[in-house]
């Protein structure tokens, strides 16, 4: 009997390519989104012929490949031609007009930005982009604080395709009417992967990321089932990585069922642990005061003895919205305000 043959050595690892399990990783071949990618390419195609492209709203729930598919098309476009400039903006990270125009400057390598206002930079950038054609992608576009930047770029750039990506299927109704009328958006829905597609994608990533043969088919299917249940490929990627790390911590050369089950059981804990103490207090505050204005909620938070600047409070509200705990809506008209609502009847420990 050999007690040590199934133990990992000090220099051994079950993970050979961790990047393949990253949410942002774009594989060389993106499975099961060929039709959607072709539709996006057709919207861009007129730009290659010197004409204006079509604008597109891409929607679907989290973890169904929207961002990956669009980035794949942009990568293919960049490899195909230098006559079309691809620009990708994540509006969760870059949510104001000034930040967005500065990010575009960075991507097109325009360095003369110091002491310039947003309008000046928009004019400068438009002159550069109008020398060619451009694809402008605004991912998580519903997180934009000010949609005016989209309107300005629609007006000032001649040959373009503008792609808006959102999880919110009703976002079209929330776009400023002026922008909606100028964009003339087509719509493309990314539906949830079916079970076989989920298995195929996760298996390909697992085989690329891990040592061959460390998963039994039965145990791997537990991950497939959970990912399909939640309709989110990212869950499966997390579970593969977490299971492998649990096995490594036990110096095991194989990923046992107990590690997969432990990884699955930790999903809820992972979500709640991503919130700090103040964020959990904000969740409780919004639940009691759902539908109030952001400024009112901040005042209530302060009155309850929590010393937190408005900007920090705002950032925490945006984080909670990104995680699906709450939702916000901008009121139009004079004295524009943000309404904050609790997202359903879940308990805090369910997130």
Explain what this protein looks like in three dimensions.
The protein is of the alpha/beta class and 351 residues long. The chain has three domains: 34-189, Rossmann fold (3-Layer(aba) Sandwich), CATH 3.40.50; 194-265, Helicase, Ruva Protein, domain 3 (Orthogonal Bundle), CATH 1.10.8.60; 275-350, Arc Repressor Mutant, subunit A (Orthogonal Bundle), CATH 1.10.10.10. The protein is 48% helix and 12% strand. The chain is built from 15 helices and eight strands. It has helices at residues 34-48, 66-80, 97-107, 118-129, 148-156, 171-174, 177-183, 195-209, 217-230, 233-249, 257-265, 267-273, 277-288, 294-303, 310-322, and strands at residues 56-59, 84-90, 133-139, 160-166, 186-189, 292-293, 326-331, 337-342. It has a five-stranded parallel β-sheet, sandwiched between helices. A three-stranded antiparallel β-sheet has the order 6-8-7. A hairpin with a 5-residue loop joins strand 7 and strand 8. Helix 3 runs parallel beside helix 4 and helix 5 (148-156) runs parallel beside helix 7. Residues 345-351 have low confidence and may be disordered.
């Amino acid at each position: 009997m050999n007690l040590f043959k199934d133990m990992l050595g000090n220099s051994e690892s079950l993970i050979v390519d961790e990047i393949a399990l990253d949410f942002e990783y774009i594989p060389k071949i993106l499975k099961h989104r060929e039709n959607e990618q072709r539709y996006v390419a057709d919207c861009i195609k007129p730009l290659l012929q010197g004409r204006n492209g079509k604008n597109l709203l891409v929607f679907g729930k989290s973890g169904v490949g929207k961002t990956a598919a669009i980035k794949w098309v942009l990568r293919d476009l960049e490899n195909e031609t230098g006559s079309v400039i691809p620009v990708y903006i994540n509006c969760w990270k870059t949510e104001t007009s000034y930040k967005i125009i500065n990010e575009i400057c960075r991507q097109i390598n325009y360095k003369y930005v110091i002491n310039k206002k947003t309008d000046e930079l928009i004019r400068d950038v438009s002159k550069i982009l109008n020398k060619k054609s451009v694809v402008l992608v605004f991912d998580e576009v519903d997180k934009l604080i000010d949609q005016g930047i989209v309107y300005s770029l629609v007006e000032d750039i001649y040959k373009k395709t503008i792609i808006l990506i959102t999880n919110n299927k009703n976002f079209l109704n929330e776009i400023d009417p002026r922008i909606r009328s100028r964009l003339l958006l087509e719509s493309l829905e990314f539906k949830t992967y079916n079970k076989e597609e989920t298995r195929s994608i996760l298996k390909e990533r697992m085989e690329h990321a891990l040592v061959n043969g460390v998963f039994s088919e039965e145990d791997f299917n537990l991950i497939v089932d959970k990912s399909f249940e939640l309709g989110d490929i990212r869950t499966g990627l997390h579970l593969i990585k977490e299971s492998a790390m649990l096995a490594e911590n036990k110096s095991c050369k194989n990923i046992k069922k107990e590690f997969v089950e432990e990884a699955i059981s930790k999903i809820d804990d992972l979500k709640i642990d991503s919130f700090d103490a103040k964020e959990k207090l904000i969740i409780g505050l919004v639940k009691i005061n759902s539908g109030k204005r952001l400024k009112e909620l901040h005042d209530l938070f302060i009155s309850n003895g929590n010393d937190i600047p408005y900007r920090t409070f705002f950032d925490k509200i945006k984080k909670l919205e990104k995680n699906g705990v709450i939702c916000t809506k901008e009121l139009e008209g004079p004295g524009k305000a943000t309404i904050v609502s609790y997202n359903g009847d879940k308990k805090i420990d369910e997130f």
